[in-house]
Amino acid sequence: MLKNIKGKTALVRVDFNVPIKNGKVEDDFRIKKALPTINFLIKKGAKVILITHLGEDGTASLDPVIKHFFKISKLSKSKIEFFENIRKFPGEKKNDPAFAKKLSKLGDFYVNDAFSVSHRAHASVVGLPKYLPSYAGFQLEEEIKNLSRAIRNPKHPFLFILGGAKFSTKMPLIKKYLKLADYVFIGGALLNDFLKAKGYEVGKSLVYDSKGIGDILKNNPPAQAGKLILPIDVVVKSGNKLINKKVTEVQKNEIILDIGSDSIKTIGPYIKKSKLILWNGPLGKYEDRGDKATKKILNLISLSKAETIIGGGDLVSCISKSKIKSNMFVSTGGGATLDFLANGTLPGIKALG
Q1: Quick check: is 335 catalytic?
Q2: Distance between CA 232 and CA 303 in Å, rounded?
Q3: In a domain, 326, yes or no
Q4: Can 166 be counted among the known catalytic residues?
Q5: Is 152 in the active site?
Q6: Same domain, 273 and 159
Q7: Checking DSSP bridges between strand 158-162 and strand 328-330, what pairing results, if any?
Q8: Are residue 186 and residue 90 in the same domain, yes or no?
Q9: Could you confirm whether 30 is annotated as catalytic?
Q10: Has residue 273 got a pLDDT over 90?
């Protein structure tokens, strides 16, 4: 428990790695989610040093993020300081103990409120807790509490919707939730891999890896039979036209952009009867007119009574303008959400002890 922190300095790891266009923050979802922890520390009289990265290589300036942060938080600049883009330092990604120790000298205690980078064994995530009293921020606690509902004694009927791409990163989830969930519905670029594994034409669609899918399709044990639901139709880009067609009718020159209207109708009854819905990854190529199914299914879920957990990353970008109902938890994580759902913890959580 945090006690007597007045006058002390908190090193707070946040994840403000947000999309920036023309020098302005495009989506501040992650920034807003960190505000309760920051406000709490300041009300208790602590000084706060925020540590974040922006971009992969650390060359990006934090100026647009800092400007936006103070605009939305209305907090005094005298109480909050931003450390430099943490990935500017080679010791961060290497989890260099000397770098972590040097960093620790800037504060009296450490708070991790960056769930979305807690799958990274970086100095500011797993190194700092070795040198300072360490705590979980409110958002990190919320993530653990809500995502755990899909792992430990989940409510049934339980529907797992999985979209996005990169089959290799999703394979552990598919295997795990074919056991845990009652139904697993596949969409996104992931569907292309499944269709290819079934011998269907996928045209010029994005395909990552159909290895291993054949085993899932062939070797489902009796307990998992009927759990896997694949769309029956898709929206393809043919020239400049969008056409809804059966999965068996895709041509070599076409690109699958989204799941089709009949598939949306198919998933409707499953949504209606579910008590728990876990959804990770968009169901179409949302940046190229393939966002309709994701929006329609989100609307169906918002009308249901199911407790809903929505995985972060690209799906959050896709739905950030939609209305989120009170029993819908939206994760700030992308890869971190996938790793937590697969393993039940993350390196950054373990480091807090």
Answers
A1: yes
A2: 24
A3: yes
A4: yes
A5: no
A6: yes
A7: unpaired
A8: no
A9: yes
A10: yes
